[in-house]
Amino acid sequence: MLRSKNEQKINKFAREYIKLNNLDKLLESADNASTSTGAELPDYVALHSYILQYKPTYILECGTGKSTWILAHALQKNHLESGVLGKVISMESVDIWYNEAKKIFPSELQQYVEFHYSPATTYQYSIIRGTCFTKVPDYQYDLFFVDGPELTVTHDGYSYDTANMDFIRYLITAIKPATAIIDTRMRTCAAYGLIFGQKKVKYLRGWMLGIIENVTKKDLKLN
Q1: How far apart are CA 86 and CA 56, in angstroms?
Q2: In the predicted model, what is the mean pLDDT of residues 124-149?
Q3: DSSP secondary structure of 99-149
Q4: pTM of the predicted model, to two decimals?
């Protein structure tokens, strides 16, 4: 019951935030145009508010969708209010979703997004094996939103679900700290807990989000 009340409070806050920041019409347009289910309202609020507060320059979105609209809207607001021009590099491993996303995306937000199609592959760091995009554009990212690619790995005839490894692969060569927000992916949160240590990884239960803030290669404890 306590968790239910907490979720109700979070959802109420999310609805109020969305209305206050004029995201309701944007989400309605996305709902009408897209055939994807999208994320939960608290996800959109967490991403939008984080971008407004910390003003990242480059965001890697692992999994294109309605969240791309929210990320771009926040970057547009930063650009208009403070002159900070940011960009979402939105990665998609399924060509159907990639083509739809490009086709329906609003023209007024296009300067804030690069869409990239890239099949999923596997990547292993220490004992953790997971999936990532085959090729990611080479930018110095401040923020990752982890909501893809497909997390099923087939090896020696066996299929199993695993973690996203794009954030880990990036940190190996990154020259500045980065933050990752993880959308309801418990295996990824658990894997990151092993790689960085449990104190570095927070899981916000009511929000159903994981977050690991301002980490670098030096924070990779598992080797």
Answers
A1: 7
A2: 92
A3: HHHHHHS-GGGGGGEEEEE--EEEEEETTEEEEEES-------SEEEE--S
A4: 0.91
